[in-house]
Every structure is written in structure tokens, then in C-alpha cells.
Design a protein that fits this description.
It is a single chain. It contains 14 helices and 13 strands. The strands form three sheets. It has a seven-stranded mixed sheet, with helices on both faces. A three-stranded mixed sheet has the order 4-10-9, sandwiched between helices. A three-stranded antiparallel sheet has the order 12-11-13.
């Protein structure tokens, strides 16, 4: 798939603690494979109960979950857009990722010094946004110069493109991220095509103390109000708790969750939200050798889904046998599903649905 999320935030907000918890082998279920690509690029497993349920029925030799690549991006400081600190590297890294997980400090602790002297998540977000917006303004101004030259031909499409780009520039100059410029499918497609930093989808993770994990606190209340226009998801996580969980032996975790009144590690919420942010869905293959989760972009057709397994499957695609997840769980085997007439035979135009169990027929 090659899609990536980048974790961003100011220094000392708990970003690296969270990254380490997300990518540490201990944070994953015991039977899942794990890999790290390089120091600041990790692979996180997407927790999915459906995979475990299917494995319980099929009892395969191995279980393979789906994963998301996550990049730990250097902490940002004011002036990054002018190359301050690791500014250029920071901006280059953000340009490469498909979605952003923005970690915000929303806890008070005198032992953890805040880079700006006080805890204010709204201000912190604005510092990061401002640097990205300044860089986007630079990018869009160059683009406008280029389009103006082309618009002399009077081409209607170029003129429309120019008008929209100028509107986006005004929006950015008002200090608003490109995400909040999106109002319909046209503007969404336009922002995506512009490939600008503040146009990328974002997930906000408020790093709170353990007492605020269920209810939030005054910091998170102010923060949620400040991002209302962006229609972005906001999660509450305690990086400290996540770090503790990742260090515990697997068998001791259930007791810990009970004590903290948690159902699962917060990092599972983050990985699922990151998956949604990247517009991804999961389909499954289920056989005695392995039960496996596969990743496709929402809206993919059956041949594209087959191509995720192997390019030959896509080239020689004939048809797909599709079982709905709930039917598989209900009837407990492929044979029983077939006997009940619940297996569908689908062709090239079939749009894969989240949770489909698929088997592809192809010739090479």
C-alpha cells in the first residue's frame, strides 16, 4: 500500500513516548509479526477483533494482521518554515506522509517542562499550523504565478483553477489550514491535488494524565472547541499509561486494563483512527494455512483487491467468491455458507466492502 501516517507535535508533548508504545513489539499481540524499518519509521498493527474471531473458527497455522506505517517526525519549533531547528527536514517529512497524527499536550506536570513555559493546547496547535500554513502560502504563491502565465490563453479550465487557487491563498493568509477550505467534493479534490501540508487529513491525540483519560479536562475542552471547524477526530490518550502497558507481559495486561477501567490499549484506538484517516478498509482471506487481513483503499474494485495479494491475481482476474463477515461467523465454515446460498460470485465491477471474506479465481 505504501500509505503513511506521520506523528507531529512540539517537543516534550509525549510524541516519542507514544511512538515507542505504538511501535514496540511488546505493544502488539504475542502472535503477530513485527518489524521496524528504521529508527523513526515503525510498522503498527491494526487491532481488529474480526481477525481473531475468524481465526478462532478456522484455527489456521498463522494469523496475519494488517499494518500501517508510521513516521516519527522531528519536534517542531517556531520558525521551522524558515528552516529553524530541523525545520527543513520536518517539512520534507510531512510532505511525504498521507495523513498526520498531531499529538497535543493536555496534562499539567511540573517535572515535564513545556517548551513555551505553560500548558496551552490551543496555542501549541496554532504554532504547528502557522509553520505549515506559511510553507503552504509559499507553495501556492508560486503556483498562482505559474497559472497566471497559462491563463493568458483564456482557457476556461485554467481560469477556474486560478480562481480557486486564489481563494485558497486568501483562506491560508487568514491563518486557516487548507483542511477547513474543504466544503464539498470539488474543493476536497482540489485541496488533495494541491499536495499542500495543511490539506492532509489529521487526527488529534490529546496526551492527558491518567485521571482525564475518560472525561478529558479543561485543556481538552478548550482544544475541542478550537478545532470544531475542521471536523477532525480528537482522541484522549495517556502516553504514560501506554508506555506502562507496552512494558507489561501480555498475560498481566487484562488486570491492568480492569484497574484503569480501560477496554483496550489506547494505541489500538489510534491505529484504527489512522486507518480510517487514510481511507482504508480491510478484507480477509481465510484458509487453514493462514487467516489474513488485507488493506485496500475504500471504493476499490475486486481486481484491485486481488492485486494487493499478487499483481498476477489482478492481471488474470476472473471472478471473486465473497462471503460477508457476519455470515461466516454465523455459519462457522465456508462449506456451510455455500450450502446456505450465502456465497456471492462477483465480477470486475464489484466494490469491496469492509469485512468481506474473499477468494479470487484467476488465470495467468
Amino acid at each position: 500500500m505504501g500509505l503513511q501516517c506521520g506523528i507531529v507535535g512540539l517537543p516534550n508533548v509525549g510524541k516519542s513516548t507514544l511512538f515507542n508504545a505504538l511501535t514496540s513489539a511488546g505493544a502488539l499481540a504475542a502472535n503477530y509479526p513485527f518489524a521496524t524499518k528504521d529508527p523513526n519509521l515503525g510498522v503498527i498493527t491494526v487491532a481488529d477483533n474480526r481477525l481473531d474471531e475468524l481465526a478462532r473458527i478456522v484455527n489456521p497455522v498463522r494469523i496475519v494482521p494488517t499494518t500501517v506505517d508510521i513516521l516519527d517526525i522531528a519536534g517542531l519549533i517556531k520558525g521551522a518554515s524558515q528552516g529553524e531547528g530541523l525545520g527543513n527536514q520536518f517539512l520534507a517529512n510531512i510532505r511525504e506522509v498521507d495523513a498526520i497524527i498531531h499529538v497535543i499536550r493536555a496534562f499539567d506536570n511540573d517535572n515535564v517542562v513545556h517548551v513555551d513555559g505553560s500548558v496551552d493546547p490551543v496555542r501549541d496547535k496554532e504554532i504547528v499550523d502557522t509553520e505549515l500554513i506559511l510553507k503552504d502560502i509559499e507553495t501556492i504563491e508560486k503556483r498562482i504565478d505559474r497559472i497566471r502565465k497559462q491563463s493568458k490563453s483564456g482557457d476556461k479550465e485554467i481560469l477556474r483553477d486560478l480562481g480557486m487557487t486564489e481563494d485558497l491563498l486568501k483562506h491560508l493568509e487568514a491563518g486557516k489550514p487548507a483542511r477547513s477550505f474543504i466544503s464539498d467534493e470539488t474543493t476536497a479534490a482540489f485541496v488533495k491535488a494541491s499536495q499542500i501540508l495543511t490539506g492532509k487529513p489529521v487526527l488529534y491525540v490529546c496526551n492527558v494524565d491518567e485521571f482525564s483519560i475518560h472525561t478529558g479536562n479543561k485543556h481538552t475542552e478548550a482544544f475541542i472547541q478550537s478545532v470544531a471547524a475542521e471536523s477532525a477526530k480528537v482522541l484522549f490518550i495517556s502516553a504514560e499509561i501506554e508506555a506502562q502497558i507496552s512494558e507489561l507481559p501480555v498475560e498481566d495486561r487484562a488486570e491492568f486494563f480492569k484497574e484503569m477501567e480501560l477496554e483496550e490499549p489506547g494505541i489500538h484506538k489510534i491505529t484504527r483512527a489512522a486507518y480510517e484517516l487514510l481511507n482504508l478498509i480491510t478484507y480477509f482471506t481465510a484458509g487453514e494455512k493462514e487467516v489474513r487481513a488485507w488493506t485496500v483503499i475504500k471504493g476499490s474494485k475486486a481486481p484491485q483487491a486481488a492485486g494487493v495479494i499478487h499483481t498476477d491475481f489482478e492481471k488474470g482476474f476472473i471472478r471473486a467468491e465473497v462471503i460477508k463477515y457476519n455470515d461466516y461467523i454465523y455459519y462457522k465454515s465456508e462449506a456451510a455458507v455455500k450450502a446456505a446460498g450465502k456465497m456471492a460470485i462477483e465480477g470486475k465491477e464489484y466494490i469491496v466492502q469492509d469485512g468481506d471474506i474473499m477468494h479470487f479465481l484467476f488465470n495467468v
